[in-house]
Amino acid sequence: MASYITATKECILRVEDYMGKMEPKIKVRFGFCGYRDHCDSDRLQILDFTESRREFEEYVQNNVSATGGGDTPEDVLGGLNAAITQMTWRNNIRVLLHICDAPPHGRRFTDVSDDYPEGDPNGLTAEIVLRNMRSKGISYFFGKITSYTNKMVEIFRSILGDFDVFDFSEGKEKPEELTFKFFEATCSAITTAISLA
Questions:
Q1: Residue 70 in contact with residue 37, Cβ under 8 Å?
Q2: Domain of life here (predicted)?
Q3: Is this model's pTM higher than 0.70 or not?
Q4: Which stretch of 12-16, 89-93, 120-124, 181-185 has the lowest confidence by average pLDDT?
């Protein structure tokens, strides 16, 4: 995930510049919720929403790295739940761009080796998390990195209805190409959410 984390950081800075130049001007607040797996001591990393580009950049640069993990699935439901419930969603237009390379735990989502084949060990379900997301008026967009998440996307769509999936899985792009893809996807997600508001 390291190259994707770097590209995401660069993308957010470009998005802020782009949105600031739109007419009428759009003030964008950014937050970050990273997650790993249940076996990792630093399972969740949260930077609540900020208007400070510097604060966001410093947080991601100094605190976010791709580490840990045991089996292939990750704490996807815990990460999404934390983003929904622990972050301060104040603006009317709410966009969650979820970028991941692995599915949640449970045979429902995957047939790869899984330390929690019965699902989330804390009792979270996709239905609980995604219905809470919908009730808070958060528009969900997904950035696909691997085919491991295909089943997850199907299940999420059965709960949420259709949502945009941005495919970042084409291979080993140069960092600037990946940043551009993220930028395009993020701007698309924001403008789509604005048009639906």
A1: yes
A2: Eukaryota
A3: yes
A4: 12-16
